[in-house]
Amino acid sequence: MRNLAPFSIGSVIRKLNHIHCQISNKHNRPFPKPEAFWSSKYVYERRYIRIHDDGRIEGGLARFVSSLVDFSFVRSIVAHRYSLVGIAYDPVSLFLLDLFRHLEKYADMKAFVVALRDWERGKHFRLYAGICNRNIPCEATFTNFKERLGEELYNQIFHVLVEIAERLGFLSYKIIATDGTLFPTRARYKGCTWFEKECNCVEFIGIIENVRRRVRYRLSHPDEEALHKEIRIKVECPSSRFPGDAKIPRPKVEVLTLALQDADPENPSIFNQIFGVQEELQRENLDLIVKRGVFTEIILGDSAKTDSFFFRCPKLPRDMDARIGVRRNPKNPDRIEKIFGFNAIIDTSIESDLGLELPVACTVIAGNGEEGRHFITNKKQILDHHGKVSKIHIADAKYDEIHNYQFSRSQGAIPIIDYNPRSENLSPLAMETRGYDHKGRPYAPC
Length: 446
What we know:
alpha+beta, Nucleotidyltransferase, domain 5, 14 helices
């Protein structure tokens, strides 16, 4: 049985005093922005921590974490992303608030910001993060902060926290388990699997002539019902990711939807003039309006037949890095569910003598990415940041690839990876022919 005395609150706090000095000496890049331009200022302050007999932490996890760990190192890690001038929040304040949102299990940032602005519910969050009542950040502030830092800097901050846990004696890295978990993005999936960045700029040549011809046709055939129907402009899907299989025809993408309506003399439509049908529509007392469509660029040529309009595909989601991943339904394992988002591949250090499982490396890929290719990536993260190798590597069938076994053995570890049959023929006749079953055991008729 391992002695747990070194993990008491008093022992941990004494160790943290020395660890904070080591972390500060290691991350000492000065923050470029003068304090006069800060909208907030985080200052580490140790607070009394009380853990009740039933395991409850007085003040919650936000108080517990902010009282133990000095997060000032975040300021040094992200310093190169900030300029000398301009008003900005202290990056430590925003990082801590985002951390509190997850620790206190708020459903989303909107709900957390509401609590943060509440005089009573948010006072402790504001106190721990160094936020004053006059400068409470909004949702957009957190979005901009995440974009400013990016995945790389978040990963650096994460590994500093792993280093602190290692120095406290919570990590041995002897047994590392690797697994991926799908999580949804906030953007809405719009039905296209093959979208790419070029879908933000779909070209249509000669659209002015196309619209002009269709409007004139409707005016020359005055059917009241057909006159006010939508004029839909479609173009063939230009995505290079679309499969080349002849059985799957390329769909037509609706890039622009127009309609005719009764003219408003006080607010004439500018599209009458753009598409060159101003005189015809004026005689009929009509206006041409755009109902759907997003213009991204317009290039006018020598004639209406060579004009180029560029549109954003209506099936393009806001988050262009997310993809559809598949997993088993947690409530019903017999069913498969699709998640539009990302896959977080997490390496966890299993500390059996402490009864703990702590994350030590993380890689985020698109939801449809191949997890097996990132088994080695996470192990190299641990090696680069902490210089540690493991004795046992555990993973599920998604990581059953030869190069993963080779890498584990080259590091002196024992790979324990679940078998993945893939499309292997496991019929009795096939196993009899090759001489062994799907678990590698000798197979022969008796």
